[in-house]
Every structure is written in structure tokens, then in C-alpha cells.
Specification:
single chain; Rossmann fold; six-stranded parallel beta sheet; 20% strand; binds nicotinamide-adenine-dinucleotide
């Protein structure tokens, strides 16, 4: 594909895919609806991996979703799964292990599977879910490599199920405002951007294990800055409505201060992303400092995420017109899952489809290549 191409959710291949997804959704739509006149039933979600994100965010969000509900889990710890069944009021038969998750195929309670395991396991679990005939959300980053993303996309296409990525910020009003400013250009094109995200990692964990994490903070945190910069370049119409990819990157790894924690992944990276319209984003991520900020500036104004730029709540956002406040924080995860459930019901594509996750891995791979070669590297999306 043309390296300058914007992220396109409607390539010819995908358009053909949509036709078949449309046909498939006709086949499954009857059981997704309630009895005549009744509200449509909530779709059943199975969470795969009951770690901190499932426990702290997704489970609680599924108590307030309108279009879906928690109906099962896949976990390595059966006792924990049984406790979840009690807490969330679903039958014990809906507790699976990673080894038995193929049996989801026989369970009509589950419509979609949300993969919340370490990055390197997303392909295994997402492909197993697709083979069981379930729609899939994969947490970010979608996988460790572009090739793995393509395998996930192919499996979902073959099974005629939808694939989405846990990009909750597309459902957050502040990030939606960033995209709106990108589209409507009230501040002019947002040509100067800056993003910084990091936290201090205290002990060795899977996030610093190359096989499970795919890399260091670039995989876990850098992806947010990539997303923010792409969103700020969103276009008013056409395939770039949810964001546009950079055309080239230049990156360097920061020297490691704690080799014990990061023997085979980077501790931090500084990089620049260049966009086709001349926009540039200066970015920094590491596991050795705390930061969560993003700024985008045009000739006529700016927007700045001063605190919690990419987190769940408590964003502090200012613009050249004054502070931005949209009222109480929304539940990003509930909105994200409800939207995907609506997409399934209505046979529509998600605004955060697997292709977007693949695009971001293409950008990440270009960044790592630039670190290796020391050269400016074209992004092949
Ligand atoms: P975690 O370590 O708290 O949980 C991971 C889960 O995977 C655990 O239940 C663990 O038992 C299970 N697991 C299965 N096989 C494993 C293995 N071989 N090694 C280690 N754990 C294994 O991690 P988390 O913070 O919940 O992150 C899970 C995924 O969610 C990651 O991809 C992460 O990037 C993503 N995440 C996304 C957000 C977001 O805001 N979208 C936030 C946090 C995490």
C-alpha cells in the first residue's frame, strides 16, 4: 500500500469483507434481537485474562453498559473465575480456561470475546475466539508485530466476525474534541505536536519481557502518543476521519539506567513523526519517568492535555480559548464496548477496527527500525 496513504478502513478487500460480514450479520441478527417489540437483548461478553485492567476497569464498566454485559470469563485461575461468576451473576459453566476456550463455540450466551492478556498472547487468544465464531476486541497494542495483526485480521475475516481494538479514547469527549479540531481546522492544521508518556517501573514484569510485551514502553505507552498525533490529523471526510498515519519517523533509544529491569527491551525512546501535510510530533516515552501530556498547535490556536492526557479520568485540558470542560468524566470503556455491541447488532464496522491496530504496529515497527538504523524511516501502512 502507498506509504503516504491515510488509514483506510474501507480498502477494496475490506469492502468485500464488509459485504460478507453484512451477510453474516443477517444470519446472526435474529438471536441478537429481543422478542418483537422488546428491547434488544444485551450481548454477552467474555473477558479473557482477569488481570488489573479487567478487574479495575472492564468488569466494572460492564455493570453500566447498555448494549452488552459480562456473561463469561477465560482465566488460568478457576477459583478466581468462579468468584467472578458470583460477583457478576453469570453461570459457572461460562468460566473457561485458556485451554478450553475453543468450547466457547458451543455457548450462545457469549457473543464477543475481549482479549485482555499480555500483548504477545493477543493473537493466540483472538484467533481462538474468532475460530469459536465470536466477535473480538483485542486490547492495545493489538499484537507484537504487523504480521501477527494480519493473522488476527485474516482469522476474523475467515470466521466472518468483527475485530476491534481497545482504543477507548475514541469514545472520550476530550479526544473527540482533538479529532474535531483536526477535522474542522478551527486553529488551522495542527502542525506542531508534542507528547510525553511514562511511568517508573518498580519491578520486572511481563511489560518488560520481549516475548510477552513485544518491546518496552513504546508498546505499552508510546502507542497512546501515536494515537493522539494521528487523531489530531483527522480529516473532515473520507478514510482519515478517526486519524491519519505519519509518513516517516526518526527515533533514538535513551540510554538504559536499569539493565536489571530491561535486559531485552528499551527503557525509553524519543521519536519524531512527520505527516504528509508537514505536521510534526515530538514524542517521548519511558519506564523511567512519570508523564502523561499531549499538545497540538496550529497557527490560530492550540489544545493542551496538561494532566492525565491518555488515562481514564481526571484529564486537565486547556486551549488557547480557555479551559475545556465537558462535565463529569465519562466511562470510556463502557462507551467503547457499547459501541462495538451496536456495530455487531447493526452489521457496521467499528470506528476502531483491527486495521487501525495494524496501522499502529506499522508505525511502531518503523520507529524500532529507525532506532536500529539511526535513519529516518518511511512508515509503510
Ligand atoms: P495484567 O498483568 O494485570 O493482567 C494480565 C492477565 O493475563 C492476568 O490475568 C494474567 O494471569 C493473564 N495471563 C495469561 N497468560 C499469561 C502469561 N503467560 N504471562 C502473564 N500473564 C498472563 O495486565 P493488564 O494491565 O491487565 O494488561 C493486559 C492487557 O491490557 C495488555 O495488553 C495491556 O496493554 C492492556 N491494557 C490496556 C489498557 C487500556 O487503557 N486500554 C490499560 C491497561 C492494560
Amino acid at each position: 500500500m502507498n506509504p503516504r496513504a491515510q488509514f483506510s478502513p474501507v480498502s477494496r478487500r475490506e469492502f468485500l469483507g464488509r459485504l460478507s460480514i453484512g451477510a453474516a450479520s443477517l444470519a446472526v441478527s435474529a438471536p441478537l434481537l429481543g422478542a418483537a417489540g422488546a428491547a434488544p437483548r444485551k450481548l454477552g461478553v467474555a473477558l479473557v485474562g482477569l488481570g488489573s485492567y479487567s478487574t479495575g476497569q472492564l468488569g466494572p464498566a460492564l455493570r453500566v453498559t447498555e448494549n452488552c454485559r459480562l456473561a463469561g470469563v477465560v482465566t488460568g485461575n478457576r477459583a478466581k473465575g468462579l468468584q467472578w461468576a458470583k460477583d457478576y451473576d453469570f453461570p459457572e459453566k461460562n468460566v473457561y480456561s485458556y485451554e478450553t476456550m475453543h468450547q466457547l463455540a458451543d455457548n450462545p450466551d457469549i457473543d464477543l470475546v475481549y482479549v485482555v492478556t499480555p500483548n504477545g498472547l493477543h493473537p493466540l487468544h483472538a484467533i481462538a475466539a474468532a475460530k469459536a465464531g465470536k466477535h473480538v476486541i483485542s486490547e492495545k497494542p493489538m499484537a507484537n508485530t504487523v504480521a501477527e495483526c494480519e493473522a488476527m485480521l485474516a482469522a476474523c475475516r475467515a470466521a466472518k466476525v468483527k475485530l476491534s481494538v481497545g482504543y477507548r479514547l475514541h469514545f472520550d469527549p476530550y479526544h473527540q474534541e482533538l479529532m474535531r479540531l483536526g477535522r474542522e481546522k478551527e486553529f488551522g492544521p495542527l502542525l506542531k505536536m508534542k507528547g510525553n508518556r511514562g511511568f517508573v517501573m518498580g519491578a520486572r514484569a511481563w511489560r518488560a519481557d520481549k516475548k510477552l510485551a513485544g518491546g518496552g514502553p513504546m508498546m505499552d505507552l508510546g502507542v497512546y502518543i501515536i494515537q493522539g498525533a494521528c487523531m489530531a490529523q483527522a480529516t473532515a471526510s473520507g478514510p482519515g476521519r478517526e486519524g491519519v498515519a505519519p509518513i516517516a519517523v526518526t527515533a533514538t533509544e535513551i540510554p538504559k539506567t536499569r539493565l536489571d529491569l530491561f535486559p531485552d527491551v528499551e527503557e525509553g525512546t524519543r521519536w519524531t513523526m512527520e505527516f504528509a501535510n508537514g505536521a510534526v510530533c515530538e514524542a517521548f516515552t519511558s519506564y523511567a519517568h512519570g508523564a502523561d501530556t499531549f499538545r497540538a498547535e496550529g497557527e490560530k490556536g492550540w489544545i493542551e492535555f496538561k494532566e492525565h492526557a491518555f488515562t481514564y479520568r481526571g484529564m486537565v485540558v486547556a486551549t488557547s480559548r480557555g479551559p475545556l470542560k465537558f462535565g463529569p468524566d465519562v466511562n470510556q470503556q463502557a462507551r467503547q464496548m457499547d459501541d462495538f455491541a451496536r456495530c455487531i447488532r447493526e452489521g457496521r464496522e467499528s470506528r476502531v477496527p483491527g486495521e487501525m491496530g495494524r496501522r499502529d504496529l506499522a508505525i511502531v515497527e518503523a520507529i524500532y527500525e529507525s532506532v536500529r538504523t539511526g535513519k529516518r524511516t518511511l512508515v509503510k501502512v
